[in-house]
Structures are given as structure tokens and as C-alpha cells.
Amino acid sequence: MSQELEIEFKTLLEEETYTRLRQDFPTSTCYKQTNYYFDTPDFQLKQLGCGLRIRVFDTYGELTLKSPQTTGLLETTDRLTLEELTDYLEHDTIKPNGEVATYLKKLAIEANAVHCFADLATTRCEITLEEGLLALDESRYGTSGHDYELELEVDAKHADDEHFYAFLKKYNIVYQPAQNKIQRAFAERKKNQ
């Protein structure tokens, strides 16, 4: 289990800008990940401003609950074995043990009340910069959702957006407000119902 404060700034990108940035940062580390998003049938987590996901990597998974804080989001994460990961996804719920389930109880939500409502596959390229951790994402969700996004994850001393906007200016990037991935996946799901 881990807990950390996530402070990030983001913008959607046009495909051309994404391609140019990939060329500008050729030493970035790229990998694929799939996120499965969970909530109660009446979307109690969404109403609380929280997000719950399982992220699948090649050799393990992560169950992460993001909850709003004064600055940023508190990420509570339980690491999952491949066996646990398969069990959670096959049974479309999470087990009532672990730190995430404990945090859900504090929100008056039982772990077995949440179910998967959307998924999203991302190719992420990361590089550490002076400003913070830069992530360039190409994401696909639902039947037709496809977008490009830049995220800049910063530490508390860079929590203002000054460094983010300076980065955008330096690389001639037009700011386009970006909902978080869970919101975009949810919107795509509603569009296809």
C-alpha cells in the first residue's frame, strides 16, 4: 500500500503536437497500460469527486483510489498480483481488504458495491524534466474515443501552474482544458449507450 499526493497539470493535444513532442523527447520511456474504472451503480464516488481504477501492467496491477485534497489528489494504492487482478476483473468488483477498501469504508461505500463501468488503454511516454515528470499519452476508450494528452506531474514546491504554462509557451503548445481520463471514459460510455 502507498499513499502520495498527486499534483499535475494537463492539456489535450492535437495529433501533430503530440507527434512533434515525441520527436522532441526521443529518450522518453514508453509503455502500455490499461485502466478499468469502478464506481457504484449510482456513481457515489463521482459525486464525491473521487475516482477508483485498476491499472494493468505486464506483471502486476494497481488498485488506486484518488480523492480530492486542498492541493491535488490523494492517491491510495494497493499493489495487486496477477492472480488478484484477474479475480477482481472476472468478478467485476474488488475485495473488502486492503487500504483502498478501508478508505472506501470511510466514505460509507462498501468494496463489493463498486463495479467496472469503463476502460481505457493508454500508450504513455515519460521523461523527467526540471519542471517535473512529463507524460505524453495516447488513449483509446469505448468504441470511438481517441485522444492525446500532456500531463506534467510536479512536487509541492512547483504546485502553482506557472511552470506548466511556461513549459507550454516554450514548446509552442496551445492549452486545451482536459478532463481527467475517468471523466472522458465516462462521457464516451454515455455517448455510446
Automatic annotation (TrEMBL):
Q: Which SUPFAM superfamilies match?
A: CYTH-like phosphatases (SSF55154)
Q: Which Pfam families match?
A: CYTH
Q: By its UniProt entry, which InterPro entries does this protein fall under?
A: CYTH-like_dom_sf, CYTH_domain, Uncharacterised_YjbK
What the entry lists under PROSITE patterns is as follows: CYTH
Give all residue intervals belonging to the CYTH domain.
Answer: 4-192
Gene3D superfamilies recorded for this chain?
A: Hypothetical Protein Pfu-838710-001 (2.40.320.10)
Q: Which domain of life is it from?
A: Bacteria
This chain's protein is named CYTH domain-containing protein
